[in-house]
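Example 3.2
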Amino acid sequence: MVSHEYPPVGGGGGKVAQDLSQAFARRGHEIRVVTAHYGDLALQENQDGVLVKRLRSLRLQPFRAGMAAMAGFLIAGGIAALREVRHWQPDVVHVHFAVPAGPIAWLVNQVSDTPYVLTAHLGDVPGGTPEKTGKWFKWIFPFTPPIWRNASRVIAVSEFTRQLALQNYDIPIQVIPNGVQLECLEPDQIVVNQPPHLVFAGRFMEQKDPLMVIKTLAACADLDWHCTMLGDGPLLPQVQQAVLAAGLESRFTLPGWVTSEQVREIFLQSDILIMPSLSEGLPVVGVQALSSGLAFAVSNIGGFIDLVQEGLNGFLVPPKNVLVWQEKLRQLLSSVQLIRTFRMQSLEIAQKFDLEQIAQEYLQVFEDVIQENTEKSHGKA
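Structure, written as tokens:
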């Protein structure tokens, strides 16, 4: 498996790579991960049966990879992946993100004929996150079609991601959503906090629009609530300043960057996921929120539409529409019964995102690809 993000480095896409790798290992498959190094992390370690190899690649921040870091990973990853193919001879390469990891899988395929399966997460699709990738896609887009075309299978994490990719690449693309290990929760275990506890989880950057959280909740300051905002990023100083300016220091908790295990623990102690994002593929935090039995107040964009049934387990709200955000949050925060009803429904919807089921879907794809590649090799012989 090749991905420039893998916990504790990166965001949701890296978490997906980790969850799937460990799920495959639990089924007895041998998995090696090629990913980016950061800080004082071990260059190589075994994590729950998965051999993780981290490459030095100029990464300076755990939550963001700049152009230099991506280029560094592309070079280091290409060398490492070719070495793995030569000595270890994997049956299939699973690559997360068409950019920057995609070219590595393409190179391996050209040199060794090892098939690869590409999982697209949205940010690696032209137009997926224009505020982040719009500028550099103008330069790299002409080089990306072979990466998609030569993949034995292309998988999108949501129907939104699939449709966007189809606008740029005329190839078959199937949808397999991100999965999560379901929590052992029953509806009768759900008790709404007093006051209700909201949680935001993501990189503090324009795409996630964290400042909208403060702006909206400040307008609901007459109601009881507490909000924890998990994450780090370039907008963190502005978020901190906005909280101070609104006089809401006692009602916000900003712990910074936390591990995926800590995210899960905090979700299990919360009531409502609030995410005013401008774009999303299928956010891992959204699937985690479902399995944790959270109500939703999220943007009506991208993969959130696959997670929320309007008025059943949450509200889908237009991005940047402050008045509608305030209206929906007021409605939710004013009714403990509504929060509890939404939370119970989220547990029901979560069943279709069971990680074990999702992993099995991927394994079937891999088996089909390996069989096709074997038959093709025999035909050439």
